[in-house]
Amino acid sequence: MFREFSQDSDAPITRFEEMLKTNEVFFFDAVEFEAIIQYYIDCGETGRAKKALKMAIDQHPFQSELLLLKSELLIFDQAYAQALKVLDTIEDLEPNNEEVLIQKATICSKQKQHKQAIDLLNKAMEIAEDPTEILCLLGMEYMVLEQYVKAKNCFKSCIEEDPHDYQVLYNLLFCLEYLKKHDEAIDILNKILSHHPYNEIAWLEIGKQYQHLGQKEEALSAFDFAIISEDTFSGAYIEKGKLLEELGRINEAIEHYHHALQLVDPSAFLHLRIAHCHQTLGNDALALQFFKKGINEDPTYEKAWTGLIDFYIQKENLLKALYYTQKALKINDNYVAYWKRSALINKAMQRFEEAEVAFQTTIELGNYELEIWEAWLDTLAFLNEWEKGCTIGQQAKEFYSNAQNIDVRIAGFFVQMGKTIEAEYYLKNASADQRRDQSILALFPRLRSIM
């Protein structure tokens, strides 16, 4: 027997949870079950959502909204074939159910069948009373296919319906930025502001568009209006601070960053920005203080570490720079910028064996800058690693086939091994200035004999 409730009973969620505790079976109508299942889906409690769904379908086996929730959960579990069977069942019951087409499009999208997803969404558009949601989904599919003009048109239609849908607005602005349509973006944002003049997000985004156009004073004014519209809007203080930095108004930038710090949780990014400002002003003690605050706030924030390391490099305090590089590597030994700095610092300190390992790791992690290949080859020369130098030089040539400064080094390695013919072959590619480069001749003294 089902236990029934009157209209004045508790909310469906409370009743459902009471039922789970008592093991009794309560009766819920289909609409109540929808609310219960959707609640648990929104909370991320898929186990309870599935329990409620099983009971719902037992009580209401042909209710299409419940079947749609079933397919949604199957899609969440990546059980796409089962979900499609459920959707086909709904389609037999309701041939013009747009949600069936939307969910089928979702399955296609997740399986990277984006063109099929677009076809399904266009069919859904033909029967939809309110196409806004479908237009948004279409825009996302076009973005994946990098068809930004079509994506832009979809998002533009959506934002006209709901100017407060900021996710759609950000997608639209992304498309316009990719298309370099900054003036069009400003027009759209101004339309939003004509109806909602205190929309701080619109003012902030207009400021960013003006920056893209190089109109910095207009950008500053827009950021000011964003702050006037919402004086606790940390993003506006940050963007204005960054622009003030660009304009050389460093003290004002620091003031805005400090204001933002009062509005948000402690931020490694803001501490780093303040550190760079103080570094620009020559306030070394304060710069160091804020670099270290940034690291303490978030020890995984790479830019804070590299900022501190570079500070000591600029001060020619290589011992300190190396110390903090080693500390950074203990936290993340896969970050290529740390290894690059380790290599260059160790080389400058004539710690050639350590530098050689660091250069190799830098290359292995994907930094193929010419500077790194040259410095690695020079390090191998200091270590008298002539044969390895030839091998690494050949690898460098794969990236820089016309780099004469690589050719002259390869020639140097060959001549140091007594292989004059091979050395002369590479040396002929080098310019006269490179052949006379005293730093190269110091590394490979036997080159003089074949000049």
Structural class: mainly alpha
Q: For the report, how would you describe the main beta sheet?
A: none
The number of distinct β-strands equals: 0
Distance between the termini: 103 Å
Helix segment tally:
27
Order of helices and strands: HHHHHHHHHHHHHHHHHHHHHHHHHHH
Assembly type: single chain
Mean pLDDT: 90
For the CA atoms, what is the radius of gyration?
A: 32 Å
Strand share of the residues?
under 5%
Helix content: over 70%
**Contiguous uncertain segments of 5+ residues:** 1-10
**Overall 3D form:** elongated
CATH class of the domain at 368-451: Mainly Alpha
- What would you say the CATH architecture of the domain at 368-451 is? Alpha Horseshoe
CATH fold naming of the domain at 368-451: Serine Threonine Protein Phosphatase 5, Tetratricopeptide repeat
List keywords for this structure.
Serine Threonine Protein Phosphatase 5, Tetratricopeptide repeat; disordered N terminus; elongated; mainly alpha; single chain; 451 residues
Description of the structure:
Helix 16 packs parallel to helix 18 (302-314), helix 21 (352-364) runs antiparallel to helix 22 and helix 24 packs antiparallel against helix 25. The protein has a domain at 368-451: Serine Threonine Protein Phosphatase 5, Tetratricopeptide repeat (Alpha Horseshoe). It is elongated, with a radius of gyration of 32 Å. It has 27 helices and no strands. Residues 1-10 have low confidence and may be disordered. It has 451 residues and is mainly α.
